[in-house]
Amino acid sequence: MALSTSRPHHLLRRFHASARALARVEPHDFSQPSDYLGSWGERPPATVAAGGGDTREAWARLERLRKGYAREVGELRRQYAYEAQLLEAERQRKAEARAEAARVANEERKAAKAAAAQTRAAERRAFELDFRQALMKERAQKLESWRNKEKLKAQKKTDHRELLRRQGSVWVSEDKMEKKILEAIMHTTPL
Predict the structure, then answer these.
(1) What's this model's pTM, rounded to 2 decimal places?
(2) Which domain of life is it from (predicted)?
(3) Where exactly are the structural domains of the chain?
C-alpha cells in the first residue's frame, strides 16, 4: 500500500522534499573512510585468507550477544517478578488492614448500637414501672373514692331510714294529718 493512497496529501506534503530543496547544493563534507574502524573499507587480507574467520567471529559474537540478552532479560524478569510480588504483598497488606479497620469499626458500631439499645430498654422499663406505679396509685385512689362514696350512700340511706322510722313513730295530731298526707303525696320519697 502506497503512502500517498493511505493518507491525505496535505499531511504527507511535509515529509517530501520540494524540487527547490532537492536542487540545493549539499554544503556538508563527508568524512573519509577510517582504517581504524574498518567500517566501509576493504577487509584485511588475513581474515579473508583464513577462510571466513570473520563470519565465525561474527556468529560467536552474535551468540554471546544472544546469551547476554537472554541473561539480562532473565534478570529483568526475575526483578519484575520480585517487584510484582512485593507490590502484591503490599496490596494484600493494605487490603487486610482495610478489612481489619472495617471489622473493628463494624464491631464498635455494633457495640454502640447494643449499648444504645440497652439504654433505651432500661429507660423503657423505668418508664413502664413509673407508669404502672402511677396507674396503681390512680386505681387505688379511685377505689378509695368509690368506697367512700358507697359508704356515704349507705350512711345517707341508713340516716334516711332512721329518720323515717323516727318520723313514723311520731304521733301526728289530726289537724296536721291532712297537711302531712298532702305533703307525702306531693313529695314522694322512695324507701
Answers:
(1) 0.36
(2) Eukaryota
(3) 51-125
